[in-house]
Design a protein that fits this description.
Blueprint (H helix, E strand, L loop, with lengths): L16 E2 L7 H5 L1 H5 L7 E4 L5 E4 L2 H8 L5 E2 L23 H10 L4 H5 L2 H15 L4 E3 H6 L1 H10 L7 H13 L2 H24 L5 H6 L2 E2 L2 E2 L2 H15 L1 H16 L1 H9 L4 H11 L5 E5 L3 E3 L2 E3 L4 E4 L1 H5 L33 H18 L4 E2 L7 E2 L5 E2 L3 E3 L4
Parallel strand pairs: 1-2, 3-11
Antiparallel strand pairs: 2-3, 4-8, 5-15, 6-7, 8-11, 9-10, 12-15, 13-14
Helix pairs in contact: 6-8, 6-17, 9-10, 10-12, 13-17, 15-17
Bound molecules: protoporphyrin IX containing FE (HEM).
Protoporphyrin IX containing FE binds next to helix 12, helix 13 and helix 17.
Length: 398
């Protein structure tokens, strides 16, 4: 497609129109982070796909957009837009509303509270590694990267691990299916969580839902339907993200043995490796909606326009990151965008890091040498949360 054939809204100059698609273009998704580099020449451009959206390419502009909810609203936040759907709490709220609901959630995810989960997360990781180690070949996604965060999550909801497969299925459908299938999963999980929240309201326990039910906003306890919505968001935000992070990290390490060997030789490098791999492959991106006609990054944007905030691009911006295209596990002051920026910056980041650190520690302790088991093209789910669909890896059994 040549640029002159593309059509966009009247306020978008023709020279900024691009046939860019981060949601379904499999060529792009082969190497989304590398392919995005080709767009750095533009400060901003406009994709004609999925209803049209602006793409900011500079970390400074992306940060400013994150920090300006009066210009870039979190609602509606989806891309393509979920117009008409009720806002997800607190993800699709703007301050001052956002601040109150975010606060109700944040103490559960503080560094101190997350640290208390260390032994439990480690036990789950050790169990999974012990299960797969004798096999010598697995699909890393299905056999490790999905079950680990799912089990951590079930534990925090006080659910039996046997419910895991049902959660995995729902999660896959919600994130990657469309239409009727998705509507059905939405209904099912809504009903499941509504029931669970009712149970916890009657019989509180030591778990996330009971804790949310004990929180107040504006001096009133959170209503049950609000807690259902918040738990739903935790489910959407806290499972597949960790799966994606573990899989992108392992794919990198399987292809780059010199980096894998560093971690095996010195496990003390793992926390730095977690940060650096999140920076190098910031797979979770977000979208905002323009609140009124305005000028930004040198272009005229109209009320209602969608803006894609690409953490993938921001984390590798050479204007902010030295040797941004090089992976360095010892990188100092690694201020990446993998968890976003501004008021909505990931509330679960400490838990995500804990899961990743422990997974990499326990995996490499037991399975220090492994490699990709097929040379096929990777298939990657597109959209705001990019994720590798399958990753066959193998190792020599002891
Ligand atoms: C490596 C794993 C993860 C990544 C890369 C990630 C990334 C992100 C990003 C980029 C945002 C900002 C969204 C926006 O600005 O619109 C976000 C928000 C959020 N994340 Fe995470 N996340 C991860 C893991 C988790 C986990 C484990 C949880 C909880 C169990 C979680 C819960 C949330 C919630 C509730 C929000 C919304 C916060 C708000 O609106 O104030 N995330 N995450």
């Amino acid at each position: 497609v040549t640029i002159t054939e593309l059509a966009g809204p009247a306020h978008v100059p023709a020279e900024l129109l691009r046939d860019f698609d981060h949601i379904s273009d499999q060529d792009f998704l082969q190497d989304p982070f590398g392919n995005l580099e080709a767009h750095r020449g533009d400060r901003v451009f406009y994709s004609v796909n999925w209803g049209g959206y602006w793409v900011l390419t500079r970390a400074a502009d992306i940060r400013e957009a994150y920090q300006s909810p009066d210009r870039f609203s979190a609602y509606p936040g989806g891309l393509p837009a979920r117009e008409g759907a009720p806002p997800m709490i607190p993800e699709e709220m703007d301050p001052p509303e956002h601040t109150k609901y975010r606060q109700a959630m944040s103490s559960m995810f503080s560094p101190r509270r997350v640290a208390t989960l260390t032994d439990e997360v480690r036990a789950l990781a050790v169990q999974l590694v012990d299960d797969v180690a004798p096999r010598g070949r697995i699909d890393f996604v299905e056999d490790f990267a999905v079950p680990l965060p799912t089990r951590v999550f079930m534990r925090q909801l006080g659910l039996p691990l046997e419910d895991g497969p049902r959660f995995v299925e729902w999660n896959n459908v919600l994130l990657h299916a469309l239409g009727e299938e998705k509507a059905r999963a939405n209904r099912e999980i809504g009903e499941f969580l509504t029931d669970l929240v009712r149970q916890r309201a009657e019989d509180p326990r030591e778990d996330w839902i009971s804790e949310l039910l004990s929180q107040e906003v504006d001096g009133k306890p959170l209503e049950q339907h609000v807690v259902v919505g918040m738990t739903f968001l935790l489910f959407l935000a806290g499972l597949e993200t960790v799966t994606a992070a573990l899989t992108f990290a392992t794919n990198f390490l399987a292809r780059n043995p010199e980096y894998r060997e560093q971690l095996v030789a010195d496990p003390g490098l793992i926390p730095g490796a977690v940060e650096e791999l999140l920076r190098f492959q910031s797979f979770a991106n977000t979208a905002r909606t323009v609140t009124h006609d305005l000028e930004f990054a040198g272009v005229q944007m109209a009320k209602g326009d969608k803006v894609w905030l690409s953490n993938s691009l921001a984390s590798r911006d050479p204007a902010e990151v030295e040797d941004s295209g090089t992976v360095d596990f010892g990188r100092k002051a690694n201020r990446h965008f993998a968890f976003g920026a501004g008021a909505h910056r990931c509330v679960g980041s400490h838990l995500a890091r804990l899961e990743m650190k422990i997974a990499l520690e326990e995996w490499h302790r037991r399975i220090p040498e492994y490699r990709r088991a097929d040379a096929d093209r990777l298939r990657v789910w597109g959209g705001n949360n990019m994720a590798i669909q399958h990753l066959a890896i193998e190792w020599d059994r002891a």
